[in-house]
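Schema walk-through. Below, the input block comes first and the output block second. Nothing else is stored per chain. Lengths vary across the set, and this one has 181 residues.
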Amino acid sequence: MAWADYVPTTGNGTLTASDVCVGSAATFAANGFAAGGTVTVTVGSGGAAATVVADGAGAVSHTLTPSTAGTYPISATGPTPPPSTATRTVTATLTVSECPAGTGASASPSPTQVPVADGGTGAEGAAGTGASDSGSGALGSGADALARTGAAGVATLVSAGGLLVVTGLALVLVRRRRLAA
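--- output ---
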């Protein structure tokens, strides 16, 4: 098999949101499978499983709606493209939290697994659909809540970086003056 034909047997999948409230949907997407191949998507350790078919590009997606809070590993396992006969496993982790009051979602106790909605077919949301592993959430609650992007610390980092540059320049100038004297 030529290097160009190589497809890794493991990889990272994407989620439309890696942190959701109980009862909210998240879509898991993965690629690198054989076109038309049967891929099994499993949620949680020994949890719910669904079977999806990879699209023409070898991508799959599956929408799930967790009913209990917790951290759930998600994996998709299926065949790699020819000429390989290997099995590929792609993973991601979904964190599910209790919803803030007033969101309308409710939890139903099920401590061992997350129910998976039957909703995944090949091309839906497969590659690059704005998925993020950086986390998400909301500041406030309700429909007018602001998304928490993690950008609040950027101003502090830029200021600290600027201070380091100014300090470095000052040290260079002092050293040059001492050498010139």
